[in-house]
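Lecture 7 notes: from sequence to structure.

We start with a single chain of 572 residues. Read the sequence below before looking at the structure.
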Amino acid sequence: MQTAERLFHEKLFVEAVDWYQKAQSNRMIRYKEELISSRLEELAPITAMKRDLENITDQASRANRKQDFDLLMDAYAKLQQVRSHYLAPEEPYSDYYRQMSNNFNISQAFTGYFKNFRTLFLEQMEQNLTSSSYNDESFKKNLLRIPAHLFGTEQEWLNELNATFQKYDDTKLTRMVAQGLIEPMLDNAASMLAEYKSVKFDGPWVISNVDNLMEALLNSDWDKSDYTAFAIHSRQYTSFASSVHSESRLLTYAKGKMDELMRNAKKSVANGNYQEAIDLYTAIGHYQDTKLEISATELAWTIAEPVRLLPALTDGSSYNHVVDGRDKFGSRAYVVATGQNNQLYFGRMNAEESVQVLTNHDLPSQDQIRTLSIDPILSTGHNPVIIIETASEARKARYDAFEVREDKIAQLYSIEADSLTIQPDNTIYAVNPVGDGEGQTAIFVRADDRYQFAGIKQEILDISADKISQYPDTLVRFTGTVIYSVSGETLVTGSNSLVLLRGDFSLPTGANVTVTGRSEQNAALNIDQQFIELIAEVLKEQSDGSTNELLSRLSGIIQIIIPVVEVDTIQQ
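Now the structure, written as tokens:
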């Protein structure tokens, strides 16, 4: 108590408070309690100051032991608040605060604690680089929160942080690029810039390093003609730089190169190098939308090569006997071809770019196809007819016809013969076919959806009308002049003979006709002077003398036997 009183009177209030508190807490001594209480009440501001500093130093010590940086910063904030209070102008206890601060060794303690954390944070930074793990980078913000004056001037501390952060950032971003983590690298760079901006810290090296890394990467992609990678990396960089570095020259470089690729793709289309163009458009598509360009190129390719309308064969082989065309049969493009096991395919694309593919399995898989074509005679406006010639063991060839209809391919005929011709009237002449008509020229005609055997093509013998009687039941062709035509019978003259024609036709007297038909019987014709005069009148303009010969022959007889011809065809 005496020491406390002495210190009080010597105005050593800081030390006096300690002694008064000791005396008050000593329960063995019970005297001058009123004086102690009075003194402590008088020295209450000193007591409060001491309590504040004790609490702060205790909290700071605890934060150091537990490596709790937020707790230390809270203690430091409290210290700043207490200090600003007691060191304010006209504050009567400012000297006592300085003394008590020295007694608690506060400045040295906090400096030591912050240095410890500084070392800890730098170690965490190195550990991240060593492990290539960057999930926790809180040390950056924490280093920026450390009071700068503890490590020299504010500029010196800032210089140290700049060098430290730049080394870390550059190393991290460079390693990510080396690992092919381009988009994560750019995301990290954007996060770095946002984090620095949030604490009003400038990190110019981030953009500079990103530009250098991306420029090297883009140049490498371009030199290797890896346009897909170039487009991907250009888009990734554009997404990054458009928000944080819009004036970057690398943006202009990437855009210029992509424009160059677009021009090259258009040239490839113009030159018919469609796959090359699609590859370029596909690569460019990683930078900008090229769906329309790809679709237009696919269309141009399909029109140029309609076989693309057909699906890829399952065994990876190519189609055989391909025939294609454009702007016909109601199609913008069409193709017919054979695939595995002689399966027949027909594909077409209409004006709306809708594609239809039809198939047919009627052709025997073992047949050797010689030719495939689309017949111009049998084909109609929207229905092409496909003619296929294959090898035949029984005849020189086998001929198959297939009609493409709205929803299927239908077989019209399958004929084995030595030859086959399609006539202008759509009938089929087959020479020596297997089956009906064998050994002759058979005629096939269409009946509904198939061609059927219709008979034998007759060979026509060209003769004069005077020799008809020599060729009974033979298809002959001859010429004559009409004497009269009535009731389904027509009488014509040859050079020196008469022929009776029968058929459903009527011809003018004096007409010169060509007749095809057969003579299977004769007929008796009565002769009189009136009949002879009729013949003379009709034939009077003939000057070859044959008329007089015929008239002379008829004179003096009353009846003559003449051949009767059943007419197949007659032409004037």
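The two ends are 163 Å apart (CA to CA). Keep this in mind for problem set 3.
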